[in-house]
Design goal:
This protein is mostly helical. Helices cover about 90% and strands about 0% of the residues. α1 runs antiparallel to α2. The radius of gyration is 20 Å and the shape is rod-shaped.
């Protein structure tokens, strides 16, 4: 359950970061443009990193469950 919530939040961060980068193009002041772009890139990068991190954790968890099931089956067969 934690992975699903984390993945949803990281995808939301990616979308928010992209929206900040696109929203920065409509700003006429150059300082605000750079602020929007920096904020967008930072949030986008954090969201992408978090999504990949949680995908990796989910993969490890799934792999560990399969390994534990095999060991349990081997112990039951012996």
């Amino acid at each position: 359950m934690f992975y699903k919530i984390a993945k949803i939040l990281s995808k939301t961060a990616i979308v928010f970061g992209f929206m900040c980068m696109v929203g920065g193009c409509s700003v006429e002041q150059q300082e605000l443009f750079y602020l929007y772009e920096a904020l967008g890139l930072a949030v986008f990068a954090a969201g992408a990193y978090a999504l990949e991190y949680f995908r990796m954790l989910e993969y490890r968890h799934r792999k560990r469950k399969i390994r534990e099931a095999r060991e349990h089956a081997r112990r039951e067969a012996a």
